[in-house]
Amino acid sequence: MFSKVSGPIRLADRVAAILSEEIESGRLAEGDKLPTEVELVKQLGVSRTVIREAVSRLRNAGLVEPRQGRGVFVMPRRTRPLDLEAEASGTSGTKAKVMQIVEVRRAMEGEAASLAATRATPDDVARMRESLAAIDEAVAAGGDGVDEDLAFHQSIAESTGNTVMVSTVRYLGEVLRGGIRVTRANEARRGDFIEAVRVEHHAILAAIESGDARAARSAVRRHMKHAASRLQDADDGFWTETDDLEVDLDAATPAE
Question: pTM value?
């Protein structure tokens, strides 16, 4: 049924995508049993660990259901799993997609910061501070700081103790990281905007550390508003997509 998997993309991602396509296309219909783990290992040429991780992703997406002693079966399609990249692509385009996600992040992460201000422990605050230091180190070393930036926002969500919020914030961050590819990414940075982002991040941390929920929510919303403004001002050429370049949402702006 399947051909061997290879390439630079994580194997579990590739396997999950292959199996999802079989289900979406109807080649694996509702109630069908997936090939056994041994069969998938043989057909796809990957390890059992990869197969298990891929199947776990399908289960989390509501596509399949393991049944004790019987195997893994395709689930009825009650609702389509959330896929912001697919929903917001096409006619709306990359820029519109990103702007819409920024609006969602503003609401979600503003509330996360508000909760963090009342729930974060000293260890949580220390992790946020470490994340901000990591952003500075990455930028100083010539990197884009995308991973470190996402880690900061994720650390805020984690400090709330709300697992649904943690998962949602992580998902929105991954959509942005994977979905925004533009030309001249290295040129799309300016020192003044990088410093503005730094100040905004530290304002968020200060509000959380002081326990001021209202100030924390306002700081995040202000940060997201400014991020949207920086993106809105970018020229059309900035949004030309490529296959190998990514841009940090917070600091994005066309070079002068």
Answer: 0.61
